[in-house]
Amino acid sequence: MEFLGKNIDRFKDIGNDMVEAAFLPDTWIQFAIIAAALAVGYVTRKWLSPKIVNALDHIDWPYRVEKAIARIANLVMQVVAAVILIFASQVALMTPPPFGSSLLVLASNLLVAWVIIRALVQIIHNPAMRHTISLVGWTIAALAILGILDETSAALDDFGINFGTFRVSVLTLIKGALSLFILVYLASFVASVLERKVQKAQSISPSSKVLIGKVLRILLITFAVLIGITSAGFDLSLLAVLSGAIGLGIGFGLQKVVSNLFSGMLLLMDRSIKPGDIIEVEGTFGWVDYMGARYTSIVTRDNKSFLIPNEDFVTQKVVNWSHGNTFVRVEVKFGVDYASDPHQVKALAEAAAKTPKRICEDPAPVCHLVGFGDSSLDFTLRFWIKDAEEGVTNVRGAVMLALWDTFKENGINIPFPRRDVRIMDDKAPKKAAG
Question: What is the pTM of this model?
Answer without folding.
Answer: 0.44
